[in-house]
Specification:
The relative contact order is 0.17. This protein has one domain. With 100 residues, it is mainly alpha-helical. It contains four helices and no strands.
Length: 100
């Protein structure tokens, strides 16, 4: 059972990384690219929620060297995927049962 869990986790981390890589290299950010990254990563955030966040991102201004608008959305989604990778232990070799 443990090896099966490890295999599933490794596949999940690989999918999440593919979403991060896609967002990093996809060029100008669009809603369609955000939706594709969501699908590629297996994150499965509802389309309606992504569309709403996309619309709201238009009102985010760049402040303090941080991006605004579409680039804000790209950065936030990348950060969310990176956090999920970290939570799954994709960046550290720790047993799945260690929570600290």
């Amino acid at each position: 059972m443990g090896s099966q869990r490890g295999k599933v986790t490794a596949e999940r981390v690989k999918a999440l990384r593919s979403g991060v890589d896609f967002l990093t290299n996809c060029g100008e950010m669009t809603l369609e690219k955000l939706l594709k990254a969501n699908e590629m990563s297996g994150f499965n955030m509802p389309r309606a929620q992504l569309e709403q966040l996309w619309e709201q991102s238009r009102f985010v201004l760049p402040i303090g060297g941080k991006p605004g608008g579409a680039e804000f959305m790209r950065k936030k989604f990348q950060d969310t995927l990176a956090k999920a990778i970290e939570e799954l232990g994709g960046e550290k070799n720790r047993p799945w049962w260690k929570f600290w």
